[in-house]
Amino acid sequence: MSQATEFTAQQNDASFDNIWQELLWRGLIQVSTDQAELEKTLSTESVTYYCGFDPTAASLHLGHLVQLLLMRRLQLAGHKPLALVGGSTGMIGDPRPTTERSMQTKEQVAEWVADIQAQVQPFLSFEGDNAARMVNNLDWTAPMSAIDFLREVGKHYRVGTMIKKDIVASRLNSDEGISYAEFSYQILQGLDFLELFRQYGCTLQTGGSDQWGNLTSGTELIRKAAGGSVHAIGTPLITNSDGTKFGKSEGNAIWLNPKMTSPYEFYQFWLNTADADVAERLRIFTFRSRQEIEELARATEERPHERAAQKALAWDVNSLVHGVEATEKVIAASAAIFGNGELSDLDESTLRAATAELPHTEVAQSGLGIVELLVASALVDSNSAARRTIAEGGAYVNNRKVTDADAVIDPTALLHGRYLLVRRGKRTMAIVEVLGG
Length: 437
What we know:
Layout: H1 19-25, E1 31-32, H2 35-44, E2 48-53, H3 62-76, E3 80-85, H4 89-92, H5 106-120, E4 133-135, H6 138-141, H7 146-152, H8 159-162, H9 166-172, H10 180-183, H11 185-200, E5 204-208, H12 212-226, E6 231-235, E7 248-249, E8 252-253, H13 263-271, H14 275-285, H15 290-302, H16 308-322, H17 324-337, H18 348-354, E9 360-363, H19 370-376, H20 383-391, E10 395-397, E11 400-401, E12 419-424, E13 428-434
């Protein structure tokens, strides 16, 4: 994962009275403990806070990005972040609403812990007076015996309260039920907050509002076991204006790992944001000021065809997650695909990502005639149609117009020794992979 943009480019909006007011305006507070007390504390003290990330996959996704940016905004306001990657909770996994998670091996979880830690690190500053700290809950759960866990932690929990938590209640009412392992997850998360409270004076936990039961598990445990008063913030679950789940397309998550969602796909995801959603996305996922976002919102209303807000959103978020250089490559790739740049300048992974949704054809040999190539790509359905397209000036290979129907493709024209971008007219394209190239 590339480094995030320079921290000097990130700042909170000075037009707000305090960080709490900005978080409210950005739509980042769905539920919390005492709001008045939180606003006062965050405005007058340096608070140590944490957010947990369980390694249940090799990468974080867009839901986690909300938390990472919330953490960064709080750090910019002078507060001290603890980024917890759950080496122990990741072995159990927080309960899903409908089905039990598949347990991973300890070795797999440890590998994913390292992956997630590497993803989290660029979003926070680990230097200065309020430097971030990376923590792993395996450090305090692994040495604890089952008896110690039950005596020191379990005794503070009441089963009647635990089964009323939304996720637990949902699973209890399902055909599958819930295992004791997943049922106990809220205790493990409560233990995390207690341990961070004791070790680092942590008094605030953030997470998604769907985790509210787990968040309050910690606040209650600290009250009972340590006599402490702490806070929790639950961010809203983000949905599109049409009610569909944000960040999902046909069941596929948008990952932060560029090997799982390429920078090109990531950029296009943001660029394709609906007009009705773009202002909200700018508030949540960028560091643009209130004035800038309001100006972009007006531009969307007055000149929607320009898509200025979507371009700003895609640039900012892609640059934040994958770096400015990767974003510039993505934009260059988009231009090159439509003839406004050199395809040969694109690295292979960017070319593949940029053409991933085009029709793809494999041919066994190089040196194809242009007529054969047009037919093989399925852009035309016959040799005569191919010749007619060429005669009318509508045939292109790698953005170069082909005017000779008897022309043969030079093997040196293959992009990265194997690809040809074939185009009919302005926008009808296919990618041909020459296996014997």
